[in-house]
């Protein structure tokens, strides 16, 4: 079913080739998503049509665009449940930062595999990432078959050598990208990820804005997440955070600002007029008790593109975009004392079409010509019956376990809740053991 209509979705070369009413397909295959990719699994493989193409029987399932997670630190799944219910600065100072000092590239690789596995199982095929050991993240993304915008994380509070290393990494990756002709279909894209205005100095932010402009790269930054950030910015720079970024040349359509709970109307107007994106992370904001709830209504009024993210699993504690859609809708209704605010279809758009526009992934719809990034959802469970409205069921009643099939770039990553081409048990066990060893090294276990 697509928009309530039994349909056949044809996929070729990673894109949707056609969407037809069920029963009109030449091969007479059932209402399905059919792809040109050969099945990668044997035992449980879905049937293959006479033409040799893979056929996914989607009868009884509902197709939606796959979810795009707009703000993540995926390897932080290693810290899931490690230091909950603590004040933000105490949690960072006593738990996260001491553990991160001991983090290796291998830990990041194993953590990313676990996080991506969780995302595939929840219907997410793209994430916007900011973390350390970029090559280890890229390796896991390519192996698992999803898409990601993987930023080079930049901070300059860790000393000049660290900053010099980050600048060298940017130069090297920019040169590589130029040599490759910046392939737009590459599932891994390069971004610049200055951590925040309080960990990156104005001259370095200005340099990042220049590189982003010259190379047409997206810039991913935490912005206006806490009252303290705004107060310090006013004291040190005489303006609010978004205006500081504007002064440094960073406000424009390439800007992806995470959080933004403390953005005021003037800042939202600036961001909206510039075509910038704000990624709302309601669960992490609520869990860390950052105070304000994101001003969604004001942001929409100002024309800001708003997407949705989970943030890291250490502050969420999962990467479930279905849960994130529901919480986003609920907190805005509560904030406005108005149940009509942020209806289910808008929550779905934040996680799909808005994100696709922000992250240059096409229009995010299931239609001919679009990238074949989609999910098939099974609403047959008691918790999602009876089915009056599939979008309502998805946003308000479903969870990750309702996702039956996940397809990215035409490749079936999960079918019938089985992730293909990888050993799920091994991924889970390897990450758990890496997390245990990491905490032992940091003497935090
Ligand atoms: Zn974050």
In words, what does this structure look like?
This protein is α/β, with parallel strands linked by helices and 445 residues long. The chain has 15 helices and 17 strands. The protein has helices at 88-100, 105-121, 134-144, 160-179, 202-215, 227-237, 241-247, 265-274, 282-287, 296-301, 321-336, 344-351, 353-358, 390-397, 424-441, and strands spanning 7-12, 15-21, 32-35, 54-57, 62-65, 67-72, 124-129, 147-154, 188-194, 218-223, 255-259, 277-280, 305-308, 374-377, 403-408, 411-415, 418-419. The strands form three sheets. Strands 6-7-8-9-10-11-12-13 form an eight-stranded parallel sheet. Strands 5-14-15-16-17 form a five-stranded antiparallel sheet, with helices on one face. A four-stranded mixed sheet has the order 2-1-3-4, with no helix packed on it. β1 (7-12) and β2 (15-21) form a beta hairpin. α2 (105-121) crosses α15 (424-441) and α11 crosses α12 (344-351). The radius of gyration is 22 Å and the shape is globular. The model is unreliable at 27-31 and 35-45 (pLDDT under 50). Zinc ion is lined by residues 71, 73, 222, 258, 311. Zinc ion binds next to loops.
